[in-house]
Specification:
Blueprint: H1 4-13, H2 18-25, H3 29-36, H4 46-55, E1 65-73, H5 77-87, H6 92-101, H7 106-123, E2 131-143, E3 149-152, E4 158-161, E5 164-174
Antiparallel strand pairs: 1-5, 2-5, 3-4
Length: 175
């Protein structure tokens, strides 16, 4: 997927305006502005990433990032966010080391997602040694299905409580 920060930085480093990049790549100006602002509408295809990289005289991997996610992970978002904050902005190998020694249940889940993002990058022939974690976030996934339980209260009443799920998202990109 296209990385908006890398695209904007590379365009400014090349000394091009959005209009000049549009003329060189054949992509509309409004679409380029959306992509630079992080709004991925329309979703950039592999062909458009190759066109942009060619216009900026870069490799396509230099303006790309790779993403992986775990939907409905069986852990509360607040517990998983503690682990996600540990790896945000670190090099991939450092992040894996931190996750191996983190004494948290969510570390295993976040590590699996990080390894999946690394595998996605490796599949696209990116240099794994130069990767770092660009994004690590945890969203609320709602109530886990089939986990409604009852807790006894005073005077013979029962009160329901539920267990939450989370969506874990990790993105990696080149330095």
């Amino acid at each position: 997927m296209l990385d908006s920060i890398s695209l904007k930085f590379s365009r400014e480093e090349a000394g091009m305006t959005v209009k000049e990049l549009s003329d060189a790549s054949g992509i509309e100006v409004s679409v380029l502005r959306n992509w630079e602002n992080g709004l991925m509408k329309p979703i950039p295809s592999a062909e458009s990433v190759n066109l942009l990289a060619k216009a900026l005289s870069l490799e396509p991997q230099e303006i790309s990032k790779w993403h992986a996610s775990h939907k409905f992970a069986p852990i509360t978002p607040s517990k998983a966010r503690l682990v996600a904050e540990l790896i945000r902005g670190r090099r991939v190998q450092d992040a894996l080391d931190v996750l191996n020694f983190a004494n948290k249940r969510a570390a295993v889940m976040v590590e699996k997602v990080l390894r999946s993002a690394i595998a996605n990058a490796d599949e696209q022939e990116a240099e794994v040694d130069r990767l770092f974690v660009t994004e690590a976030r945890v969203d609320e996934g709602g109530i886990r299905r089939g986990t409604r339980r009852w807790r006894p209260k005073d005077r013979g009443r029962a009160v329901p409580f539920t267990r939450l799920a989370s969506h874990i998202h990790v993105s990696v990109g080149l330095e």
